[in-house]
Specification:
The chain has 428 residues and is mainly α. The chain contains 19 helices and nine strands. The protein binds (2R)-2,3-dihydroxypropanoic acid. The site of (2R)-2,3-dihydroxypropanoic acid has 4 residues, from loops.
Amino acid sequence: MTMDLDAQAVGILRDNDRGGYTVPTSGLYPYQWNWDSAFAALGFATFDRDRAWRELEDLISAQWSDGMVPHIIFWQSDPGYFPGPEVWGTKAAPPSSGYSQPPVATTALRWLFESGPQAEGEPRLRALFPQLLRWHRWLHTARDPDRLGIIAIAHPWESGRDNLPDWDLPMAQVDISGVGEYHRRDTAHVEAAMRPQKADYDRYLAIIYFARDHGWDAETIAKQGPFWVADVGMTAILLRADRDLLALAQSLGEPAAAAEISGWIERAEAGFDRLWHPDLQAYCSLDLRTGRRADGITSATMLAFYAGVPLGDRAGLLHGHLERWWHKARYGVPSFDPDHRAFDSIRYWRGPVWPNMNFLIARGLADSGHGDLAARVDGDTRALIETSGFFEYFCSRTGRGCGGTDFSWTAAVWLALGASGDARRSVA
Ligand code: DGY
């Protein structure tokens, strides 16, 4: 059974390979996506290390001159996806979206480097390192201009967790009067009940149009953009990625970079506390325009372990949420609190289980000495794939596969979980 699934997972990554980069799934997502590629690299690394490096090299090669690494890279045109490059109008070469995504890629690179022969990795890492440093610097400045130590997203898509209930209130403020008619393509590929709603898409587009009409200027976006929310997921993944970047700087002998990165880590460790919701007893996103906290808990709160923030008594509180969620929904880790009125077990980020998040959550739990919980999360990920296949995500109540099929990050996570002891420590 497992052998079969291993072969299937390798086949999926090979089929989704477009020659240097991997599409998340054909049809629904026909381009390169930023954090999807980081997971794809972890999967490739279990059977083709050179291809794993190339995945990340292709991603970083699309970096903007200001340091931003985009969330979608439109390497070729595909009429099956909306909104395509003409809607974004970023004038980037290669054509790309104008937002970034959580930098799982840095963490994946550290593993690739540390798990392989020095002679293979060092020249490739040395070539990428300055670009990675500039990307992190961009995230710490463009998305945290007030130096709060928490990272804002300028669009729900920048979080990678598109339709979280967290964004409902901030999105309600977005003016959609200029959006007009458009033709979605996603619901031609996937059941509409599993996707964001039209009200969400209207706002996704309005936010893009604002940035496009202001020449994608990061300062204007930070000061006046219609959506500006500090995200727990982005902040936690960047903090972890900073720690990994610091380790890489030390391996390469880059003391000036190491000092700069240490400053970011210090600021983020202090800033993370701003996301603590005293009533909900969890880390929650914060609307930086209104000062309002989200009124629900998402699975990103469990990334506090992955980020390595000092938790003290809070660790037990977070474990309590996890146990409660397991009790309520059959499979862990639901992307949103199953006790909340906005929970929906199949609608994208409003409650399903996502294998990429499970992978990061489990690595964080294992790192912080909670191996039993990490094993449970990994066990659920495996069980879902064994029962339902390589779907994009899974219903947290029934385990049914949802969203895209033959999905790259699901195949990659399967391979990374099943690989040797070293690979298991991939991002740990
Ligand atoms: C989509 O098109 O649904 C993507 O998540 C945007 O990044």
